[in-house]
Amino acid sequence: GHGVPDLHGMTVREAMRALGPHGLEAAVEGSGVVVSQEPAAGAPVVAGQPVRLRLEPAGPWAPAARGGTGR
What we know:
mainly beta
C-alpha cells in the first residue's frame, strides 16, 4: 500500500488531486485549507479508505509557504 500524502495547507481540490492516484477518498469537514488529517501523513492505508480532512478558512495567519511552521 501507499502512505497518506501530507495534505496540510491544501484546498479541497488540491487534496483530492493528491489522493486520487492512491485510490483514496477525502471526507471533508469545514472549508478553506486543510489544517488536520486522519490518518496522519505517511500512515499506511488501503485503497478506498476515506481520509478525514478538517478544513479552516485560510487567513492572514496562514503560513504563506506550504509546510510553514506546522503545529
